[in-house]
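REQUEST
  id: r-88c1
  op: predict_structure
  target: 4229_t:CDS:1
  payload:
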Amino acid sequence: MTAVLRSKTYLDFKVPNKKYTYVYFKMVEAQFWQLKHYLGFRLKNDDIILPWSVVYDDWQVSLNRIAQNTIKKIPGCITVFCKELLNICNTFEGSEIRQRCEELYDDFYQRNLDKQIAERIRLLDTTVFSEHKFSEFLRASSKKRTGENNEASSSGKRVRHVDHADNFVPELFQNHEENEEVLSSDVECSNRKQDDDESILKIFGNEIEYSETMKGIYLEHKKHYPGNTIIDLRPRSKFFKQLSNKVVQDYNQEIEQKSGNLIPDNVHDFLVDFFSQELTEAEWQDKIDDLQSPKNDDKPNSDDKLLVATIRIIRRTLPQFIKAFSLGAFNPLQDIKAIEKPHLNSYVHPCLEAALWHVARINYIFGEIPSQNHVKRECADGAGYMTGADKFQLIYVEGARPKAKENKELADAEKIARNLETMFASIGRETINNRRRIPNGMAVFGGQSFRLRIHLFYLDYCEFCLHEIENANLPRDFTEMADFVWYYECILKWALLAYDMTVKFKEIRNQKRPSRQSYTNNIRLLDDH
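RESPONSE
  id: r-88c1
  status: 200
  body:
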């Protein structure tokens, strides 16, 4: 930055230790308070490399406090210097420098994150995915046997043929130009029919129960799109709009029974009362600090536990929004040019992480997360794992920056659908190999953040069905505080359904194992492909 401190007398000025600013301004002389020097200090001294939005906000907030003379005994030339540092960010030259600083810092941040992820993968390779590796070995052996059968075909033995449909165009991407608005949220379904996937589908068809409504939807989908393996039942999908009003009504009733009453009245009333208040930044911070769990002398019921979890989630995540709202023109939620990772890591992932942990005890990690479950070893923006005896991955999330283009939404939606299908089949395969029953209503959960809206859904089986649980906008300033009611309820519903899934897996461990006949039939189906 080109702002210059105009008084040589105060070149060595430091903010007093007891004043409320970031420690950098208490340790470093005023002449060095430019953004580039500040970032170098953070990268050198911080034990944990924080996202750009957090680091940049600390710099801005501290300068604002000094510039507004909220700290007594600050020389006038220092306050003017701080104002110039802030104002220059709005100039063309300043915005270019800030952009380069942001790119440089994000590069360091990503390298540090990659290092942490590499260490986590090393640990997971020795624990969580050990059984998965064994299943990969079995599939490799199966392919070897297939090759031997093909080589022996000249002796009269039957040769196995595999049908591929890689060139098939999914229904969700047909007539793209004519259906641009509808297709903006549709998912391109994977149509790669590998033999092992066909075998696991046969087992799911025998093991999992589904309603008459879903059977009718399945037959309708097969009639129009026989090659697709995923039925997209989200409200804006092309196939969903083709269903009759009667089928849609019956389907909506089933989804409403499953997710419509998940939020109890005491939690809803608390959220409405809390976010209907009109407060200043400082008053909101005090309200968050004063939030306490309700005192109940009797044994707390499930509604009380959810309210406690909700309060913990708010205390963990709301301060970051309040901080952004208080920055006015520098509010990152109003900045359509915000970079993807800082945006997601500050305002989306922490909310999902807190909800999944406090409600479902699911360990949610975010960044660029590689996983052996993902198609072509792709990376997810967020992934969640069970923490009990089973370490299954139940959560897959993708996101985009606020100014993302429409094709980014399509690409992420396709990626989520493909990986949810792979995760579902992987869990089923491992469950069968361990001679355990497949939970009725088994599901995996996906999330997509596009621009300033989150969409949360789950995938279950009849073939594979993608259902939207809820969607909500991210509030952007103090005038939209009431929108937090729907934002938090959306995330809570998703986390509650994920929690229900973890409970079902625990119950399966306590149930009687499937009969030997059922077990051997399923194993033979797996091994024959």
